[in-house]
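Assess this one:

_____
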Amino acid sequence: MRHGQRRNARRAKNAGLDEDVLHWLLEGEAETFELDSDAVYVTPALRAEARRYDDAVYEALQALVRKYPTDNGATADDLWEDNAAYLILMTLRGEGVGIWDGDWDEYYDNKRMERGGDVWRFLNSRLSAFTTGTGEGTLGQALMDAAYETAGEGEDELHENRHRRNADTDRIPSAREWFRRFPDLGRDPLFTIRLKLPCGNVRVRAWEGPEFTAVGSYPTHTRLFCELQGCGVRFPREHYYVGIPRSQSIDGDAAKEQVLALFALKPGDTDDEFFAEYTPQQLAFVEQYGEDIDMIRLDRYGEDD
């Protein structure tokens, strides 16, 4: 029997983020920034950061099984050898696979491993410094640096891409791309709006995004990436945004009114296509509380012009 028999076993050396996984991640990073993915290779700096991540994962697993023993008596070594480094990385990044999608069902109930569960919260608290759903963190930065370094851009171009505030007028970066380029903008929101709804407390936040061109060739608007969380539902900033004209303050009442208006929209208010990617939980939320949010919007920030 495999589980429960390896309490004194040493960590397997080949169970972390190996060269193939790192190269695959690096190819994806290059594609995100429209670099030549065929040119990338794993740099010593990226390899060193991946080893730091591996060590941190193993230490986190040891602490995890002490605090939350597995359902079947499996040890930290068992979890480590069951693809822990990769699965936890995908979980932290919010990808379509992770610890929650079946591979670890013998260890913990699935709900404990989904976002908000105690196992998810524990691992996220221990390891989010390495990477997040927006690509922030030391490992996320190492991947971006390696992509630019190996895809042929020099130091000047790398510096420009890290700190450039204007977006390409032909293509507006996603939240994930933007906050990888400028992690300082992703740390603190421009503003937070707190709502009291019949279902409970809700928090709405907005972060500064890129300038973009709505008309002509000169930037006319600033994108704000927006998030709503509370009442058992979350609208992540990776998928929700508004555009604020440059003539308006990006953290003023008009901007806050627009952000609330975004989350007040419900089926029937605009084209059905707008809600095509809403989850059932998100649709139920806006259908039930969209009017409440709209009333708060009007009460706080005034009638539409």
